Amino acid sequence: AQETGSQDKPNTLPTNREAVKVKGIYITGPIAGSKERMDELIQLVKNTELNTMVIDIKNDDGEITYKMNQDTVKEIGAGVNYIHDIEGLIKELKKEDIYLIARIVAFKDPLLANKKPEFSLKNKDGSIFRDKAGLHWVNPYNKGVWDYLLAISKEAIDIGFDEIQFDYIRFSTDAGEEASKKSKTEIITEFTKYAYEQLKPYGAFVSADVYGAIIDSKIDQDIVGQDYLEMAKHLDYICPMIYPSHYADGAYGIDYPDLEPYKLILASLSS
């Protein structure tokens, strides 16, 4: 079923805005809901080179960080209301000319998966998938999940966010692949293209956090379903998550990558 919310009312943001060179900080829902902490962080932005805040709107647990007016959010009780006055917060941040990025976790969503098992990722034998932590993920092959994510994204734009940043726009590193004619990389790329086409008319930029290790590893690409080149065709920005601790000793000719993060990140981005 098509989700309802603000998606039928495109935002008035211009669609030809110039890109912003961002220097930002990441803020969780509980922090965003604390006036004292946000006042401190606003001062930090004003007194430094920072100009951006990345704020959790849909977090790793599947929670929506404010009482969003969206059907499935209300049905499954996902709106936890960490941020009691989201409109007031956005207005205050915009007054300070702060560029706002809504972080939306895509397919790691144990809350939605538990409340609506039909949206759960399943193993090839039909059983419900759980990762090593025992958590359910939602199914990237399910177009109902897509509609849910896009309804949330469109409402975030409607209240004033400048950019939608998808995180966990992938399969679990522990997941098998459902029986399907399309591969993991094909379906993640298809979702990325769909999301971009849906969100661009609203005037927002669209970005995605992508595993750094997949840059030059076809094996890792196939496991999580992320293809940098294909995804980048349908995004304004792509954000490589290059964690030195994820690389084996000797990677890129670096004896201990975890001890030389600069060299590792430079080598990875240059590959």
Describe the structure in your own words:
By secondary structure, the chain is of the alpha/beta class. Helix content is 34%, strand content 13%. It contains ten helices and six strands; from the N terminus they run E-H-H-E-H-H-E-H-H-E-H-E-H-H-E-H. The chain has helices at 29-32, 35-47, 71-76, 86-95, 110-115, 143-158, 184-199, 218-224, 228-232, 261-270, and strands spanning 24-27, 52-58, 99-105, 163-167, 205-211, 237-241. Strands 1-2-3-4-5-6 form a six-stranded parallel β-sheet. Helix 6 packs parallel to helix 7. The protein is globular and about 45 Å long. The mean pLDDT is 90.
Task: For the structure shown, list the relevant keywords.
271 residues, 6-stranded parallel β-sheet, 10 helices, globular
